[in-house]
Amino acid sequence: MRIKPFRLERWLLERAEIDLGGGGVTKLRLRDVVPDFKLDQPMKYGRTDGSDEFKGLVAEWYGVEAENVLITSGTSEANLILNLTLLERGDRYVTENPQYEQTTRFAEALGCTVSEFQLVEENQWRPNLEEFKERVAKGTRVVFLDNPNNPTGAVLSKAELNSIVDVAEDACAWLHCDNALRGSELTGKPALTPYPSYENGITTGSISKLGATSPRIGWIIGDPGLIRRCWEMKDYTTLGHSGIGEYMASALLAKRSQLVKRNLEISEANLKTMDAWVKSHGDVFRWRRPEAGFTGFPSYNLGVGSEELCRGLLRDKGLLLSPGSFFGVDSHLRINTGSAPGVLEEGLKRLASYVEGLQ
Known about the structure:
Aspartate Aminotransferase, domain 1, 15 strands, 359 residues, 8-stranded mixed sheet
């Protein structure tokens, strides 16, 4: 099997003085989460489907039962397991654009036929539902979406999700919702997910966007029959996720309310900075304020591609931003709005200076 390079994740490994390329909030420190770390715990797998305690914490957050949850090594493994479990060569796979490209590239590598529907920038990145209906033909195997969306921060309304569910149900398709940005919604109300209201709905997510990526703990939520099939597949991917990671993840979810509050305070402050900056540079930049997530996705009119622009910024200004082309939409930049105080301001100064030089 040949797979295309994951351009974004390789790009994010570039060294920079100011790193605003990522999509998460300022990271917690271990002592913030587990100040009394248990040093006598055995270094073993634990249950490969997840401990009863941790599955219970995830289930409580989503309003489901523990039998509806499989614990994985981050959202990345959750998405991988689902594609391996559900997809075969020749299957039809429908996905949104812009998007975080992990699942789509893997579906292509499996030999699936991939079709995209657009999120409309002029309509606050809402989905084009008429186009969506046209794309989801009878026999479509999987429909994929991010909710909240990465990179735009758009959140589906109840009416929009219901319309998407209706179309998926008519096509007898699985509806996979990557919910990795759960807890970042600016209203404080979690974005809607398709399961359990839709039997063939699936949700994936993780603790990463609460402020801790190193534990590498995520989950799949769905019908118990699907969860059993995914668990069987997990035996052939990682078999067992990190036991110590699950220990940290349990501590994170146990205090998720205060972590969400902390993260939203960081996000709100940075969004105000972005609002003012975009307004003062309105001759070049425009944006739709995100409803969730820790990124802005402004457009620009400079006559240069986003990858070329980002490489120039890194080379000349030591600033790392992510090209919109890596998400399927050129002439846009993904800018981290979850950064520590002062980092965003410095990054925007460097961006403005570089743009002035281009002009």
